[in-house]
Amino acid sequence: MSRGLGDVYKRQDEKPDLVISGINHGPNLGADILYSGTVSCALEGSMLGYPAIATSLAGLSCELENFQFAAEFMAKFVKKVKEINLPPKCILNINFPSLSGDDVNGVAITKLGTRMFTSDYDKRLDPRGKTYYWLAGQLIQYDENDGTDINALRMNKISITPITFEMTHKSIMADLENAFCKDGICDWF
Length: 189
Prior knowledge:
Helix content: 25-40%
Number of strands: 9
Distance between the termini: 67 Å
Number of helices: 5
Oligomer: single chain
Strand content: 25-35%
Structural class: alpha/beta
C-alpha cells in the first residue's frame, strides 16, 4: 500500500506508546548506567514524556538465541507493562543474563548495585585520527547484596530496575542552605 505525503503529515501528531532502547550487547548494571547510550536513549524518551525501557543482554559473548529469548520476553513484557502506570521520569532498566531461556531462573525486581573496576585506560584513535581513552578496567569488587541488579544476574535472573533521571539528593539541600546561605541569599563568596 502506498502512502501519499498527506498521510505523513496526518501522522505527525501521533506519539509513541512506549520507547524501548536496546537490546544492547553488554550489561547496564549499577552506576554503569550513567555511561550507557542504551539507558540514555530510554531516559530521553522519558524526558519527552513517554514510558520507556532500556534493555541489555549482560554478557561478553552473546549468542543469537540469547537475543531471541530477550526479544520474546520483551514482546510479552510490553503487554504486561500496560497494567502498571509508570510514573513520570521513570524508566525500567532490564538486564538479561546471556543464557538460553531454559537456563534463566526467573525475574527479579531490583535496585542498582555497586561495582568497582581498576582504573585502566586504553589510548585509542577514532576514525578521524583523534585520540580518545577507553575505560578498560577489570572488575575487582561487586555488590553481593540481595535485591540488586548485579546479584540477580549472578543468580541467572532477569533484572528489572526502575530508575529515574531525577538525581537531586534532596535530603542534604536544607543543610547546604544553612551552611552557605543566609536568609535565602547565597552570596558569601
